[in-house]
Design a protein that fits this description.
By secondary structure, the chain is α/β, with parallel strands linked by helices. The protein contains 11 helices and 4 strands, in the order βαβαββααααααααα. Strands 1-2-4-3 form a 4-stranded mixed beta sheet. The termini are far apart.
Length: 261
């Protein structure tokens, strides 16, 4: 607790100064508003002029550090080098409503508070998953399962600290961008759906009739997935990160297996 973290912002490629300032101000305002929490000492922020520059940087870092799964989103948080780092894709942000951009930045800021250590990225891969799917696919299952569990923690923190409206904006963005073309036909795609639905645990009214936004292959799974997510935040919230990740991986795997019978 105490003073907020020192935020260091780095530009990679061409990024307008006013956008860099907006990112910095949004982060500093957030950290100042949650000073009752244990905050990191520093946060590095990389703002990329193009999606290609962002992907190249993350892939190079992952290769150098032995990271086996890398996410590609408008904004990304990781702590591979021992401290929280936030990555912002200006090329993708510039076409979005500013409220969506703020919601995305706040989401990563909450990750930096909750998951700013490499320990949150060291997850066991269940041997049975490797036997069933092979190492590469199993690693992707565990990676996506970890994002589901950690996103639930992020939405909870934001909702409890006066940022519920931005959890709603984050969900609105996911609903408008990711749900439209999402098809559910394997474990990874059902985990992607679970990730998109994580805000619904804290936004029940906004998620009513969400099935209407979904491809027919996903609609029937919504109720069951939300039930699993609710159990993660209540019955199984004491398990710890590793066991929660393995639990959701197994539950979604079993759900998909049952649906294919």
């Amino acid at each position: 607790m105490g003073l907020g973290p020192k935020v260091y912002v780095f530009k990679v490629g061409f990024v307008p100064e006013n956008f860099v300032n907006y990112v910095s101000e949004t982060l500093n305002s957030f950290y100042n508003s949650v000073k009752g929490l244990f905050l990191p000492e520093l946060v590095e922020v990389y703002v990329y002029g193009s999606s290609r520059e962002k992907i190249l940087f993350l892939e190079t870092e992952a290769r150098d550090l032995g990271v086996i799964a890398v996410g590609d989103f408008v904004t990304v948080h990781e702590a591979w080098r021992g401290w929280p780092r936030i990555h912002v894709d200006y090329e993708k942000c510039r076409s979005l409503q500013l409220e969506y951009v703020k919601a995305l930045i706040l989401h990563e800021a909450a990750h930096s508070v909750l998951h700013g250590s490499p320990l949150y990225y060291m997850v066991n891969i269940d041997r049975k998953l490797i036997e069933d799917f092979g190492f590469e696919y199993a690693a992707k299952i565990i990676y996506l399962s970890s994002t589901v569990v950690k996103d639930l923690d992020v939405h909870k923190l934001l909702a409890e600290h006066g940022y519920r409206d931005y959890v709603e904006k984050y969900f609105e963005f996911l609903r408008n961008v990711q749900l439209r073309n999402m098809k559910c036909d394997d474990v990874l795609s059902f985990l992607e759906l679970a990730k998109v639905l994580t805000p619904c645990i804290f936004l029940e009214n906004e998620c009513r009739n969400i099935e209407g936004n979904l491809h027919e292959t996903c609609r029937a799974a919504v109720e069951e997935i939300i039930r699993i997510l609710k159990e993660l935040t209540t019955t199984y919230s004491h398990l710890g990160l590793n066991r929660e990740i393995l639990m959701i991986a197994k539950r979604i795997k079993d759900m998909v297996k049952e649906r294919k019978r």
